[in-house]
Amino acid sequence: MRSLIIFTWLFCAASGVFAQSGRPGAQTADATADGKLSAPSAAQLFDEANTYARKKFTEFETKKLPYSEKLRLQIIQEQKQLAAKNAAMLVARKTLAGEDFYFLGMLHWIAGNDDGTDEALKKFIAAENPNVEKLQAARSVVVILAARKKNFDEAEKILNDYLNTNPTKARERARMESELAANYRAVKNLEKAAPHAEEAYRAVKAGFQNAPSRAVGISDLIENGMTVFEIYRDDRQTEKADRTLEDLRKTGAFVESTSIYFVAVNERIKYLTETGRKAAALQFYQDALVQAAGDFKAKGWRDEILQRLKGREKHYEMLGLPAPELPDVDRWFPGERKKLADLRGKVVLLDFWATWCGPCFAAFPSLTEWSQKFEKDGLVVLGVTRYYGENGGEAKEIELLQNFKKENNLPYDFVVGREQLNQTTYGVMTLPTTVIIDRKGIIRYAEPGAGREPEIQKTIEKLLAEK
Which of 146, 326, 390, 416 has the most CB atoms at less than 10 Å from its CB? Predict the structure, then answer.
């Protein structure tokens, strides 16, 4: 069981609240001189909503309640509803001025009301002599909103105002720059996206030590570093793409993160292969094994990164080469048995899985959707498994698989081997593993593990577009 407190920082980081009111814990109305209770201030209403989730998670931790994603989402929704209610209370007042608009804007921000956020924070920014830290926080939110609306001139102007005022905060800047990069990318303006992505990555590196947690800092480094790489990759700026991945690798070594290091090395090998530099990719892999052993002094980290890299060796060798035939096919159903060579001209997705593999099940909805949506465009999905010596012999296992396929409404064919030979041929050491073969029969994608549906779909669409 994972306790809820683990997710406290996750929610606080995702909520988008950039600043506290300066009056923590003030969540009740104040008493006037005659003993009557006055209405809660804007700061108090903000504090109540802003601290709601954190207090709830702390309460659940104290009670040792188990983590539940459903419960987490419920608390987030409750916080949004409380923020919306408190914002409505403020809007009903006719005497709002100055910092009241800051707290109103932040309440709208928590509630997810972008228009209300934008209107209130702009009133605060225009106020006379606003508190400078709140001013900067307000600007950072308005930049994000403008970027999302593709109001780039406005976003750039307010970002410039932010950068010309002290204090600036690395995490605020990273969020603004990242949002601008993402939205320039969305409109295919890679030239504009690149410098913002670079600045976001630089800001995340600068603010790593002050991240809400090490896990958040590592995640931000990977996300922003990969964004820079992807922009240069898509813009065909090979040298800059290479340089970005090398910088990410060095950053992983510097902060002693095997996760960052592995992502950088793994992506570099794949990118070298994709850009026609297969020999360089394999040489880089061998060099990386030596380099990693020197970059990580702690034995545990060194063993971990080497194990992860060595576990990918077969895939690195296969990428960009013709797909080998599945050597052990005992049953193929319900369609007719085929060779992979018979499927040339199609994009073929091999899903290596097993009935006992829980994570494999999470991909079924996507596999079903892809099979149905892209079949007419030339996609063939094959579920590759084998006998595992259970359920009373091979005949019983086939019956189990047939029933399983029917019960889960899986529209694609199953390919069943007797032994491990198919998995060994394709370097499958983890289930699920996905291999995608292009129309020419070349392996273009080979990745282990669950949760890769977005990148798998992008690969499918890319390969189907190739004629």
Answer: 146
